[in-house]
Amino acid sequence: MDREKLPTIFSLAASDPQSQLIQRGDLQEQDLAQIDAIMAQMGRLRAVERKISRASQQYMKLNETDMRAIRMLIAARHREEVVTPGQLAKHLGISTASVTKMLDRLEAGGHITRQAHPTDRRSQAVEVTPETHVAAREQVGRHHAARFEAARRLTPEEREVVIRFLGGTADDLESSITPPDSDAAANGQP
Description:
Elements: H1 12-15, H2 29-60, H3 64-78, H4 85-92, H5 96-108, E1 112-116, E2 124-128, H6 130-152, H7 156-176, H8 180-186
Antiparallel strand pairs: 1-2
Helix pairs in contact: 2-6, 4-5
């Protein structure tokens, strides 16, 4: 199997040569090299995950939203929870009309079934079919198991560092979504 190459576009020297975005005068060359290596590995991870996602979608003949719905339905089955079309719409961030079209397509493809909700006669219960459950486990589940194995090889202390890093990265990225000037503008300030 071909290994995904490390992307070089995440190098600070290549992406921010004038230190306009990231002030790094206080960092040693070895620190910068390690940070560049982390960014390159994160880029490689994203590239591999995109490759896996495309392969899974092609294998199951589903789009990304369909796959997210299937994953939710499988998780609900494992927890013995009933899922309604409204819950799917909320989880996927799409309209109930779009969910209806998606469910029609998934049902026609043999991926889901719909039946009367066990406690709310006004609603439906949506379930993944056993065949799709097995196909998803074989295709997507083995990739998830590989992530688990990578985490298993770490010591508890190393896992804490990774948890802190990933959580901090997610927090920092989330806070970067809103441009700095938009908070002042939202509050009526220039």
